[in-house]
Design a protein that fits this description.
single chain; 66 residues; mainly alpha; 3 helices
């Protein structure tokens, strides 16, 4: 389990700003630290798959989002 102490150790965000973010967005403190970290670093950008899936994979009639 991730604690607030863990978040404070690994996130450089100002704790007062994180508290305000938690209040404004109605988040728990751990979630607010995660959101602050994402906003500061862009760390939550989607990961690109290492290899694309073959076009024939999936169920019939299933369409992938663009």
């Amino acid at each position: 389990m991730i604690t607030i102490s863990d978040c404070e150790a690994f996130c450089d965000a100002d704790p007062g700003w994180v508290r305000e973010l938690a209040r404004r967005e109605q988040l728990g403190m751990v979630q607010a630290y995660a959101q602050a970290h994402e906003m500061m670093t862009g760390a939550a950008a989607p990961v690109v798959p290492t290899r694309p899936l073959p076009s024939g994979d999936g169920q019939p009639g299933f369409r992938r989002a663009a």
